[in-house]
Amino acid sequence: MAMYRPSLIPVCLAAGLLMQGAAQGEDWIRLGEERVKLGAGAVLNAFDTELRVNAKGIGGGGVDLEDDLGLSSDYRSFWGYAQWRVAPRHRLMLSYSQSRRDADVTALTDIEIGDGQVIQAGATVHTELNTNMLPIRYAYSFVKDESHELALSLGVHWNRVEFVVDASAWVEDEGGRRRVEAKADAPLPLIGLAYDYYLSPRWAINLSGELFYLKLNSNLVTYQGSLYNARLGTEYWLSNHFGVGGAVSVFGLDVDVDDPDWKGSLDFRYWGPQLYVVGRF
Q1: Rg (CA), the chain
Q2: Averaged over 32-49, what is the pLDDT?
Q3: pTM above 0.70, yes or no
Q4: Would you state the torsion angle of the CA atoms of residues 54, 268, 161, 159, taken in this order, to the nearest 10 degrees?
Q5: Which domains, from first to last, does the chain contain?
């Protein structure tokens, strides 16, 4: 499966440099005063994923997808971001990221995927794990001046996960072929803090962190678990409307799901650098 490649970033960078001269006659947009900000780029993630799925015959004590089923630990994925500053201290923010990983390996040892079901050593195994993440946030800046902005954020982190394993030899099938699939939506509320420091009219450093833990009666909800997300980044504005950014982020999601298509758990963690282009109006 082809991976996302950030080939548009050099093109956008060149376009931004050409626009710089044309923007000199405009009033400079001060950092923290932009009305709309948009960003897009690539993330190089290092993953660690373990899951347990009981629905449709998958289950067991958990499978490490990188070590046991050959999914790559390092993967480039797409990231997009949009922010609308509704008022000087009020912002609505939305971001989106995705990863599409698959692998074809020969099992070196027996792998338990279900309750008493085993993929035999020597079997050919095809695995897919697709994730889509859509955090939606509202932020209120209770500290805001020319050099600093500190905000409290509240929102929902929506996670869509799809898992497929297709093996050529299962014990119960005595050498036959079997394909199993599971998918789940796991939206978790989140609360966080975000801090921006404006070093100059063109250069900003930002730091943010979010977390949440939800544990309720399983009769009330179909998911429960914890989430954390931390990010350290910087942005430099090449012109009034165009800039470049870089960041390092760490993310962890640990949820239990009780859904018709997925009854089990997902422990999903990644970290990695991020490069992107950004525009503002």
Answers
A1: 22
A2: 93
A3: yes
A4: 120
A5: 8-24+32-280 (2.40.128.90)
